[in-house]
Amino acid sequence: MRLLPAVLLLIVVLGALSEVGATLFLPDKIVADSCWVEKSQYKVGERVRIFVQLVSGKTRHWVVIYKPNGSPVRIGLPARSGTFSIIAGSAGPPLGQRTVELWAQMGATKAAVYTCYFSVVKR
């Protein structure tokens, strides 16, 4: 459990970077599950790609995308360690900020382990 504070700090720092639209260069060895988007804003109809890197094994993972009105869209992911996934789709209405949460479940414990953001704007 000693790693937990360091991992949480890493998640907070990386999450803060994604909020301001900073470019995120990932190291060769990722030490925590993570997700990110290519850019902070997409025009309606533009292709959105959400990248997910899973490090922890024996864990169920999924992504929840919250629209501006709070409605969630849940997307399941493979539960294998070392898995890299790309979730792709077109940006659509309503306009506004989307919150993307990467969730993990081990046993009965569920938690959002990473969050990133993007906005949908007019063409």
List key phrases describing it.
14% helix, 123 residues, Immunoglobulin-like, disordered N terminus, mainly beta, single chain
| Overall pLDDT | 77
Oligomer: single chain
- Distance separating the two termini: 47 Å
SS field, number of helical segments: 1
Tally of structural domains: 1
CATH homologous superfamily identity: Macroglobulin (MG2) domain
CATH class annotation? Mainly Beta
* Cα gyration radius (Å): 14 Å
The 3D shape can be described as elongated
Characterize the biggest β-sheet: 5 strands, mixed
| Count of DSSP strands | 8
In which range does the helix fraction lie? 10-25%
What string, H for helix and E for strand, traces the elements in order? Answer: HEEEEEEEE
The CATH architecture would be Sandwich
CATH topology name, in short, is Immunoglobulin-like
Would you write up a description of this structure?
With 123 residues, the protein is mainly beta. It has a single domain, classed as Immunoglobulin-like. It contains one helix and eight strands. A hairpin with a 5-residue loop joins strand 4 and strand 5.
